[in-house]
What we know:
The protein is mainly alpha-helical. Helices cover about 70% and strands about 5% of the residues. The chain has 16 helices and four strands. A hairpin with a 5-residue loop joins β1 (about 345-355) and β2 (about 360-370).
Amino acid sequence: MILHHRRELVAANLIAILGALVSVPVPLLIPLLVDEVLLHKPATAVGIMNRLFPEAWHGPVLYISAILLLTLSLRFLTLVFNVWQTREFTLISKDVIYRMRRDLLARLERFSMSEYELLGSSTVASHLVTDLDAIDSFVSQTTSKFIVAVLSVLGTALVLLWMHWQLALFILLLNPFVIYLTTRFGQKVKQLKQRENRAYQAFQESLAETLDAIQEIRAANRERHFIGRVIDAARTIRDRSASFTWRSDAANRLSFMTFLFGFDAFRALSMIMVLYSNLTIGEMLAVFAYLWFMMSPVQEILNIQYALHAAKAALGRINQLMDVRLEPRYPHEVNPFADKVTTSIEVEDVCFSYDGETPVLNGVNLQIAAGEKVALVGASGGGKTTLVQILLGLYVPERGRVCYDGVPVERIGLDVVRDNVATVLQQPALFNDTVRANLTLGADIPEDRLWQALEIAQLAEVVRGLEQGLD
Length: 471
């Protein structure tokens, strides 16, 4: 999907490079005036300004004002380029996440219903919303900031090497050690984040199951038990989230403190270099400015590990949806329902299990003549609903076959079967939409047929009494 945005990615990275080019010189400009203006050692900067401005203007006020104006201009351009680059990455990320969500939803059309029911609707919804948002945040924000941070650090390294290569090497060689320490802290936090994510998923699943079955739960007077389970899951979130939050904050503060230790050591070393090398006071102040300038980019580089852990975990959970088995697609060779009021049904040696081990249906054989009325009676859990789901093609039998007028489903097509076999499931769902939308489910059905169905259900008068009727 990223390949669809190659041009935008190139543009975003070019903008990031421009942003780094205009931001890196900023910490160097004003400190250079300390040597060239305050300590009366004119050099490159003063020479350039003397060539650009009339001789009558020459003096400290001009030099300081010109450098200040240049510094403010570069800072403004840095802001423009950074916002522009973030916008480009955000647009790319939003489109990529949309395409992922669209493709996953399209895949949902063909999910094996038995595997879908094992996952649960709340789990699927969590993957499609929360997990994709985590990836979106990583791509649109963390990645763009990381690119700018890396370019800023590289630019700073080049400037420091140009100013005083011995001091620059010391700073650049010690920074990887700081990054290593903070990475170690991040690995500890990663495990806590995984535990917190699992706690949220368990809570969502428990809450969704309880809300879906609230009528049955209340009828059995078992609200206390099931609500108690949800509260236990919420308590687990509290404990694990609290553990992750304060420990991740401690790890961040510890990594920042480690960076500050290095910052102070570098400043002290710079002062020593002024005494025992050719490093000037102005260059020392520039080193101080660059150390402060590097603080934010280095922190962005360090923080990417936490965002990466969250994004990798989210991507792993999304990949679970990609591993869900899809129902087969059968060819439309014969339509036994065409021009007929009803058809016969034959079930031949059908076997089915949800987990691949425990059989729910084992060698079921059944013949129903066209127009015949048959009632399936049996104990709860005996497989009656499962058999109906197989007749509809919602479940695919592991063995055996289902035929309509002697034609197996494999030659009819599951969509044709569902278009012609009507059923009322145990838990019908009502959409938060109009009466018409709930009756048609998006299909194009003449209005007279809708009123006919409402008459049969003895709801026609009720709907006519509504302010907007079917709509």
